[in-house]
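Example (one chain per record):
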Amino acid sequence: MNTQEIINLTGKYIANTYNRFPIALVRGKGCKVWDAEGKEYLDFVAGLAVCNLGHCHPRVVEAIQEQAEKLIHVSNLYHIEPQAQLAELLCKNSFADKAFFCNSGAEANEAAIKLTRKYFKDKPVPAEPAPHLMRGIKQGGENKFQIITMEKSFHGRTMATLAATGQKKFQQGFEPLLEKFIYVPFNDVKAVANAITPQTAAVMVEPIQGEGGVNIPSETYLKELKVLCREKGLLLIFDEVQVGMGRTGKLFAYEHYGVTPDIMTLAKGLAGGVAIGAMLATDEVAKSFVPGTHASTFGGNPLATAAGIAAIQAVLEEGMLENCQKVGKYLLEKSHKLKAEYPFIKEVRGKGLIIGMELTVPGADIVKACMEKGLLINCTSDTILRFIPPLIATEKDVDEMMRILRKQLSAVSYQ
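Predicted structure:
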């Protein structure tokens, strides 16, 4: 099929939930993708931080092929070898003791929300809480289920994760929302402290906000959150759906800040492009999930977890973390140089290979113009260009990306 035929078929049969660009991508390899007419694009979107290894990484392709010939799916009523092996890899390379597998970031966050509620329902309520416990410190029971999240956060589009998301634009039309989520400014520990009530159970935060604009925390923010949560007896949940799996130059973003959560969620880059999600937790918290409390039919299936094993091994064994740090630094430096040239670039920020370039003008036309010239980038929050290439991107790729982007920025400056 050619591009127009694919577009027509999409329009006829696919629910209209995306503003799609008028191209149809049919093939990918490394940092490049090709459309139905054979036009090549340099991909600095990477499936929205999914294709961390690049497109069709040989290790992942081989793992999928081998597993597909043996066993694609069985129920979680039975033990699944690659599922157990992937859980071991994740736990041994993180803070966690236990893993729960699902199929997406939203499902992983749903699991985190459910586990939080169950954990506190399992905790006894003191008969007469001491005064210093009255603001939610170390209490459990029926009424402890409020979760504090951040403004500009994004946790998913299911009803619970939509309620957790601190952006009204995603929530409009779906009210009434699930209750007991409170939003406070990102990077403001005092705001979190002031929001705590006797019903507060957890603080849920992206270590680096992705969809909200690539917002980077201060060096002490996450540590201070951990201290606050410990003082108040709250759980700390890190949503690393976008920034986990090497995106920041560490396997997990929390490693940059010297702090660990009680629960962490993963998805996107976890299996090299195959749909998967995971919720990781400490033994203390995870023990509240028992048979019948949560489940996923497809979660942890043999095919997805085999791909996940291959993906993690590739990240850890093929120098991708080091490359991410090196090329990410180069991309950030080049982006700062552009900021010095173009007054409508307000700010550049990022860590590893997730870079945000905030503009004082809308970014949509720049994204479209770059696409027409063979470069795929993304715009979030209307004015923030987001660069999230595969972790295998090279400095040469960055140079090509900057060459195309500069021309489009120059066109804006002359308008």
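Caption: The radius of gyration is 22 Å.
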